[in-house]
Amino acid sequence: MAEPREQARTVVNETEEEVVKTEEEIQERVEPAEEVEEEAVSPLDEVLGRAERAYAAYMEAQRQVATAYQQNEREVAKAYKRAEDQARNTCDEAIKQALKARGEAIAQASRVRGESIAQGEEAYQKEKKEAEIICEASVEEARKSREEALAQAWQVRGETIDQAWKIYTRLSG
């Protein structure tokens, strides 16, 4: 806001200078005419003429001041519009950057999620395969132990039957 005020002061100073110049120009034009009319004009006419000229200069100065204020108002409005446009553009750019950052963050999260799911699936498949291998090894060992136990039991049965027949044959005979 300091800039428009400074512009207004500059315009007012320029207008005052123009008024003074205009007044001096009027005086320069009027003085030769006064010299010619001095003989024919009474002192009252001279005072009235000066008053009319001064009033005309005052009115011109007032018009110039009004014009300067109107110009200043237009300049202030332009400055406000520029500030408004800049604020809107800055806001739009910030929103655009925020949306872009959000999109990138979501894309990154999706990639990480996909990788995590893939890693989880891979770990699951690995553990499942290991569990199946361990299970198959345990089942195989259990079957082997069963076969050994059956073979041993069959052998003990055979030995027991052989002993029983030996005892029977000794007792019977």
Q: Describe the biggest sheet?
A: none
Report, as a whole number of angstroms, the end-to-end distance. Answer: 138 Å
Q: Considering DSSP H and I runs of 4 or more, what fraction of the residues is helical? A: over 70%
Helical stretch count?
Answer: 2
The total count of strands amounts to 0
Mean pLDDT: 85
Outline the structure in words.
By secondary structure, this protein is mostly helical. It has one domain. It contains two helices and no strands. It has helices at residues 2-37, 43-172. Helix 1 runs antiparallel to helix 2. The longest helix is centred in the middle third of the chain and has 130 residues, at 43-172. The termini are far apart. The mean pLDDT is 85.
Tell me the layout of helices and strands.
Layout: H1 2-37, H2 43-172
Helix pairs in contact: 1-2
Question: Which features does this protein show?
Answer:
mainly alpha, 173 residues
Produce a short descriptive summary.
The chain has 173 residues and is mainly α. The protein has helices at residues 2-37, 43-172. Helix content is 96%, strand content 0%.
